[in-house]
Amino acid sequence: LDAMPLTPNGKLDRKALPAPEHDALITRGYEAPRGEVETTLAQIWQDLLKVERVGRHDQFFELGGHSLLAVSLIERMRQVGLSADVRVLFGQPTLSALAAAVGGRSEIVVPANGIAHGCMKITPQMLSLTSLDQDAIDRIVATVPGGARNVQEIYPVAPLQEGILYHHLSAEQGDPYVLQALFGLQDRQRLDDFIRALQGVIDRHDILRTAIVWEGLDEPQQVVWREARLGLEAFTPDPQGGDVIEQLHRRFDARHYGLDMTQAPLMRLAFAEDKPNQHWVALLLFHHIALDHTALKVVQHEMRMHLLGQIGQLDAPVPYRHYVAQARLGVSREEHEAFFRDMLGDVDEPTLPFGLQQVQGDGNDIEEARRLLDRDLSRRLRRLARMSGVGAASLHHLAWAQVLACVSGTPDVVFGTVLMGRMQGGQGADRALGMFINTLPLRVAVGQQDVRQGVQAVHGRLSALLGHEHASLALAQRCSGVSAPIPLFSALLNYRNSSEQLDTQSEALAWQGIETLGGEARTNYPLTLSVDDLGEDFALTVLAASGVGAQRVCAYMERALQSLATALESSPASRLQDLTVLPQAERQQVLDAFNATARDYPRDKTVHGLFEAQVRANPEALAAVHDEHSLTYAGLNDRANRLARHLVGLGVQPGDSVALGLARSIELLVSQL
User: Fold this and answer.
1) What is the crossing angle of helices 550-570 and 392-408, to 10°?
2) Residue 104 pLDDT > 70, yes or no?
3) pLDDT value at position 332?
4) Nearest residue to 522 via CA among 169, 290, 180
5) What are the CA-CA distances from residue 265 to residues 201, 229, 423 (Å)?
6) Are 172 and 362 in contact (CB under 8 A)?
7) Structural domain boundaries in the chain
8) Share of the chain above pLDDT 70, in %
9) From start to end of 176-308, where are the E strands?
10) pLDDT above 60 (res 579)
11) What is the 3-state secondary structure (H, E, C) of 66-118?
12) Confidence at residue 358, expressed as pLDDT on a 0 to 100 scale
């Protein structure tokens, strides 16, 4: 191409790009698909990956596949009656291997909901996904406006929801999982249009009409209301209080403001008229326990369809109960435990980068930094991932492991990885709303292993982990040698595919007069890296505890990716532990600047002689401070002399060596003098 095609906004217009010729892709000697299953799968791959033909030995990732496309692939297979263990796709990603695995996994049969519309009394026999006695049911129903007639279903929380609820209950004030999105609207009419569209999405999806109850129950339960109205709060700004948006943020700051989890929907819209700027502003507060990153995209899409008056074109909503059934009736607890014991059984020390141990924080003292990777580096990483037969996510996980090994002082690290939770989420999981994602531990060794082996090892671990994406983090930690309350890890990696293409013309028409002004995401972990896969580029976002330096961690990650790419290109047999993580400027500071300690001094005098001269000149001046303890020069000299007399009494002679085994302290100074 003479030039890249651009949209009216100046962004790359991917739809205008010509399809790549077949020889531009990595292939393995074309051999036509055999049999009905391979032929059907080849057609699905061609549609999803936008390639002209797929041979039976071609690999999914070498043709451009990634985790989000894998979810779509599993759903497309399900639609034509094919099912397979998703781990095969990641472990042996050839067309023939996946076809051979078809039928190797039985679908979970989701039991029907027993609560009929208009039901006046809910009994234990009506609950197909949970076991509750009549007293517990009656207490749950009493929390719902309208009683039993307004209860659609009751079922337990999913694995990650358990952890989020725990942090909600542990927070002394506010809630680290209340997220925000800020919008600007040109007038009150567009605000009302926005509210109607959002209410329309709430009416369609059960998870948005769900409350969480736990008081007096053996385990927390989700209660789906048949009708739940969006909470609205008109905010009157103080004319003398400054910027209206800043006033809104102060009023609804999640550090002190929370949502009532027992009342649906778990979202609220606060709005105000911004008269100085002649528009309205609206702050949407929603709880992460109900929506994940992928679900938010579905909400945005459905609101757009509402705003365009095209709601009739939407597919039927997918009930969240399908996912809950998969999580509870799928892989057994015993299978989860066996897998995590094999991975973590001999891990007896936590991975705590920078010594960070607090994983129950409220997200208040967190710094954020963003960095868009160099275009050339992004292209190299994609090419190297395809050549290695892995997804780009595997390279980012390995690089993050190198960073954590560097800042935690161990070559064998464990960190949390955020899984989509939709690979085995059941029918329609690719377009369902709800909290599907799950955080589970990943163990990576970055010592003597060579780079090529390291890439394949990480890919293998990630592939195996997919089969257990519905396990709870608490179960995984119990399978390690690190006992609670000490955390197994304190750092996360969240790899997100954000490369979907939008119909820019209809998008602009739908959101005309409505502008997204920003948002806020918080975390209880002290160190989190999010990698946004933008289709061509990669963007890094680091959330780090204050004092660590989020921008510094971004630089470490970028340098680790550069080192990994260079090694894969030129020396794949080099050891992982030899790759560089420190950027050149910091490396020079550590090796040179910090060691430039040479000072001129009186070479005809001893150290203790100089010290005694200072004692005579300034006996009451402060000589040393350690925590709450301090000594003057006279006091320090006195203690040093007392220790010297004690050593002489033990028979120590001038010229003898005395070993010191003390941490940095006043006692160490005394001993040295």
Assistant:
1) 120
2) no
3) 83
4) 180
5) 11, 7, 27
6) yes
7) 14-101, 124-317, 332-593, 607-672
8) 92
9) 178-185, 210-213, 221-225, 231-234, 267-274, 279-287
10) yes
11) CHHHHHHHHHHHHHCCCCCCHHHHHHCCEHHHHHHHCCCCCCCCCCCCCCCCC
12) 79
Residue 353's pLDDT is 96
Average pLDDT of 264-281?
93
Fold classification of 332-593 is: Chloramphenicol Acetyltransferase (3.30.559)
What tokens appear for 323 in the block? 């996912």
Which stretches within 350-484 are classed as H helix?
A: 375-388, 392-408, 451-466, 473-478
Neighbours of 109 (CB within 10 A): 8
**pLDDT tens for residues 402-460?**
999 999 999 999 999 998 766 654 566 666 788 877 889 999 999 888 999 999 999 98
What is the Cα–Cα distance from 501 to 11, expressed in whole angstroms?
A: 11
Tokens of residue 202, six digits: 């709430």
Give Cα 629 to chain centroid, integer Å: 43
Highest mean pLDDT among 219-233, 357-371, 482-496: 219-233
Q: Provide the pLDDT for residue 331.
A: 78
* 8 Å CB contact between 439 and 417: yes
Q: Which class is 14-101 in CATH?
A: mainly alpha
What is the per-residue DSSP string for 199-226? HHHHHH-GGGGEEEE-TT-SS-EEEEES
Please report the pLDDT score of residue 325 as a whole number. Answer: 85
Q: Which residues pair with 444 in a beta bridge?
A: 413
All residues at 6 or more sequence positions from 40 whose CB lies less than 8 Å from its CB, including other chains: 80, 82
CATH topology classification for 607-672: Rossmann fold (3.40.50)
| Residue 211, CA atoms < 13 Å, CB-side half-sphere | 25
Stretch 578-595: mean pLDDT: 89
φ, ψ at 184 (rounded to 5°): -110, 135
Q: What is the pLDDT of residue 323?
A: 84
The answer to whether the 14-101 and 607-672 domains have the same CATH topology is: no
C-alpha span between 583 and 366 (Å, rounded): 23
Average pLDDT of the residues in 121-146:
95
166 has pLDDT over 70: yes
The Cα 309–Cα 304 span in angstroms is 9
Q: Is the pLDDT of residue 351 over 60?
A: yes
Is residue 69 over pLDDT 70? yes
The CATH code belonging to domain 124-317 is 3.30.559.10
What residues have CB less than 8 Å from 315, skipping those under 6 apart? 428, 431
- The C-alpha torsion from 5 through 8 and 12 to 13, rounded to 10°, is -70
The yes-or-no verdict on residue 212 having pLDDT over 60 is yes
Cα separation of 436 and 423, whole Å? 10
3-state helix, strand, coil in the chain (%, to 5): 40, 15, 40
Q: What is the CA radius of gyration of the chain?
A: 30
Range 615-622 contact pairs with CB under 8 angstroms and sequence separation of 24 or more: none
Tokens of 193: 């249009």
How is residue 141 written in tokens? 């129903």
**How far apart, in whole angstroms, are the C-alpha atoms of residue 199 and residue 553?**
40
Backbone torsion region of residue 573, taken as left when φ is above 0, otherwise alpha when ψ lies between -120 and 50, otherwise beta = alpha
Q: What pLDDT score was predicted for residue 442?
A: 96
CA 327 to chain centre: 20
Amino acid at 31: E
Rounded-to-integer distance, Cα 609 and Cα 615, Å:
10
Task: Evaluate if residue 561 carries a pLDDT over 80.
Answer: yes
- Cα–Cα distance for residue pair 576/652, rounded to 1 Å: 49
